[in-house]
Amino acid sequence: MIRVRLYNLLAERSLSGKDQYELPFEQGLRPVDIIRREGFRGEEEEAIVVLINDEQAARETSLSDGDRVELMINMVGG
Question: What is the CATH number of the domain that holds 38?
């Protein structure tokens, strides 16, 4: 099982509309797959920061059963 959490406006703008949910583990599943399933592409996809088990990770990292994936918007302020 993969636990997914979407922060900030991501939950509101996602296809699922949820801020937390679980996915069945699939061999080869990556955060980018979850991001795309939620409807994010292009610039929106690129602005998403991925944490796996509380550590920043690449979108293409293969997930393991039991992982926690957190997705948040990379906020740049000034």
Answer: 3.10.20.30
Residue 78 located in a structural domain: no
Does residue 51 fall inside a structural domain? Answer: yes
The per-residue pLDDT for range 38-77, each reduced to its tens digit, is 999 999 999 999 999 999 999 999 999 999 999 999 766 5
Helix (H) or strand (E) holding 18: none
pLDDT in the model for residue 9 = 87
Beta bridge partners of 62: none
What is the DSSP code string of 31-76?
Answer: HHHHHHHTT--HHHHHTEEEEETTEEE-TTPPP-TT-EEEEEE---
